[in-house]
Amino acid sequence: MSRLIVVSNRVNPPADSGVGTAGGLAMALAAALREDKGLWFGWSGNTVEQYTGQMSMQKVNGVTVALMDLEAQDESEYYNGYANRTLWPLFHYRPDLVAYERSFDEGYTRVNMRFAETLVPLIDPDDIIWVQDYHLIPLARELRARGVKNRIGFFLHIPWPARRLLATLPRQNELVEALFSYDLLGFQTEDDCAAFIDSAAEDSRAEVLRTGVLKAFGKSVRVKAFPIGIDAVDFSGAVKSDTAETYRKLMVKSEAGRKMILGVDRLDYSKGIEERFAAYETFLADNPDQLAKVFMLQIATRSRDDVDSYQHLRGRLDAVSGQINGAYATVDWVPLRYVNRPYRRDELAGIYRAAHIGLVTPLRDGMNLVAKEYVAAQDPSNPGVLILSQFAGAAETMTEALIVNPLSREDVSEAIRRGLAMPLKERKARWEALFDNVKTNDVDRWRDNFVNCLRAIKLDIAPEVSAKVETVSS
Ligand code: ADQ
């Protein structure tokens, strides 16, 4: 069978039994690479004075990884710049936070060329190549320009924005065109597929050849939704672990008979944490009978500290959480516990299980795996209630959650009230349907569906190889 090459910005194959610490995505990719004797290629996370094109090959937890270093300028223009200050906010519907700087755009193109240059010598003719996420959209174009004819697939973990929003990005058509150098484009949801097809059809005159196959720029590409899941089996193991049970008991003790409303997120403006705090404040104001009977625990681990919008958000959350506690706390009750340290997955599993409400209210999210982990961690005989934003990719399939508009304080506040009062029978019925979906559509299924679909693509719809190197920047 052909070998699988996974390419992502960062590379982190966990050990076989990474139950406590490793994320499901990394576990699933590493398992496929071990089976296939594949290769995982990406940036080492290190910067050097001068990029040399050298890479280091090593075995990490049974997976062959190839790592390259970048220059400090690359890190600032490509990673902190175009990826995290241009594409991330734009694709999460925050044009107000987008930095449109030509140097970022140039750095993004340069780094994708560097990825291609370094990767090409490692590719065998029948390898299949799977590129992950928005950092590497132009990679297939750069590989094709260097003569690579292999099947190449791309999966976008974040949403694809609406056409009118994408239009605010200078040279956005070049980004769309770059995606036509792939054979298969995977999105999280049907909605994202439709948004991409709309961009391609309206602005790049792409033709729909047959369902899910688009043609433009003399090339064809298959477009399909592959909703990502969690590592349901491994996560169930984490839920049953001693550590999870210790944390569950710790939380039950600290609840002191109160009901816990839980939020768990990377500290990111797309997760809607500030809006969630505001909705919780509305809930406290509108439900005086619930004061001191509930509390919210928000775990928000710091991320992308080098980007100013993240520093600003941290400051806001510190202030708003302080205001809520200042207004409502009593000597024996703190309404909002706000925690910035990260927790291991088995610790989180125990915390999820002790929560009466899982409050997952991103303003935009590709999928949101926290929603799925919360469901997987519940006690089947007494499950909690998931409140889920209509703007998370997960809402497309997790329809038995209480679906809310995260921008409406009243909407979220009412859902909290309803969730706290929900009878056991309804909680069980909703949870059973949700859990069934989480178990069936897990991360292994996501990976296998994508890889099988890529393998099955006949080269007759493979893109034509372009002899000229085109770049995103002008
Ligand atoms: P993230 O935005 O990082 O990922 P999310 O799906 O919310 O997405 O969480 C990913 C993982 O991080 C989960 O396994 C969760 O347990 C863990 N995590 C989150 N907060 C944590 C915390 N405070 N402490 C410890 N662990 C924490 C991107 C996209 C998502 C998409 C995923 C997968 O933005 O939309 O679901 O990729 O494709």
Could you explain the architecture of this structure?
The protein is of the alpha/beta class. The protein has two domains: 4-229 and 443-457, 3-Layer(aba) Sandwich (Rossmann fold), CATH 3.40.50.2000; 237-440, Rossmann fold, CATH 3.40.50.2000. It contains 16 helices and 16 strands. The chain has helices at 24-36, 72-91, 102-119, 139-145, 163-166, 172-179, 190-204, 232-240, 242-255, 273-286, 308-328, 345-353, 369-376, 409-421, 424-440, 443-456; strands spanning 4-10, 39-48, 55-60, 63-71, 128-132, 151-155, 184-187, 207-210, 213-216, 219-225, 259-266, 294-301, 336-339, 357-360, 385-389, 402-404. Strands 3-4-2-1-5-6-7-10-9-8 form a ten-stranded mixed β-sheet, sandwiched between helices. Strands 13-12-11-14-15-16 form a six-stranded parallel β-sheet, sandwiched between helices. α2 (72-91) packs across α3, α10 (273-286) packs parallel to α11 (308-328) and α13 (369-376) packs across α15. The longest helix is centred in the C-terminal third of the chain and has 21 residues, at 308-328. It is globular. Adenosine-5'-diphosphate-glucose binds next to β11, β12 and α13. Residues 23, 25, 157-158, 228, 264-266, 299-301, 342-343, 348, 365-370, 373 line the site of adenosine-5'-diphosphate-glucose.
